[in-house]
What does this fold into?
Amino acid sequence: MLLRTLFLLLALSPLTATINAGELSKTEPSITPPADVQQETEPESPAKTIPNKQEGKFTETPIHSLTDSKQTSINDISASIEELKRTIEHYENAWISKLTPALFGLLGVLSGGLISVLLHRQRISHELRERNAKYSFEIQQQLYTYRNKQLNEFYGPLLVLLTQSKELSMQLHRQLEKWDNVRYRYEVDKTSPEAKSSLFVYHSETEQDAFRLIEELPHIGVSHKEALPQVKEIIRTGIRMAKLIEEKSGLVDPKNIELSGCLGRYLAHLTALKDAYKQAKSSNSEPQRLHNAVFPREIQNLTRLDYDSLRKKIEAWEQEPSRLGATP
It folds into this structure.
């Protein structure tokens, strides 16, 4: 039907223009100019009669010519319409016209399917991004919780106990120097990277060693038994540290292998220190067992490094706007 309508409009357009032109020619009058002045040399002839013409009047056009023109136009229109009908019927009977609805239907199905696929892929992509963002946030939140647990349950308490143990040891060192400043003296420890002042034990004027409690306990038990209560407090603090290490060592950063080794050496040192203290309290002048499992001094610096690193990571995570629910 659409093709038929288009063909009719195209065919009728020039014919309509022809009819309009014929109508205009029908209504347009033919004007004859006024009669010219009779020539002076031509005499009037009574035998000749002048046709009944009036000056300045319109003359009638032949009626038969207009009728013929109109009839011709109508015949042409009829012929064109018949030709157009035959052309339309020819195309309607053609195989392409029969397949046109099916082709349009197939095109609609394909277009709808393509749009559905694109929308489905877009939805899946959007859901995947949301899921990844959600999982990423959950993972980071769990990591944040774990780091807080490391900080609050292991590194923080361990630093406190290490500081307490160090302060008790410094008090013991000052007390020993006060009691025996010939044997115990403070000097700059040249072997330490910080070049700080430490307590040294002078065996003679030419022989001295850095003070190590576990090695000096036999002499303290004999010469300075009044210092043993301070040693006992150091051991009590060490027992609390050992319990923390045994229960919370799983929170140690697995990358810090050096700290893990220090924790193991400290447990061995504490075991030896308790045995040396037990021998120093006895009445025997000579110790039955000698120990050289010294306190691992680097344990405090390694613990401090991990503590500061965790604290900075937690602070950076808390300062991100997305963690607080703000939109970027």
Remarks:
- Residues 146-323 form one domain.
- The radius of gyration is 60 Å.
- The longest helix spans residues 95-179.
- The chain has a mean pLDDT of 76.
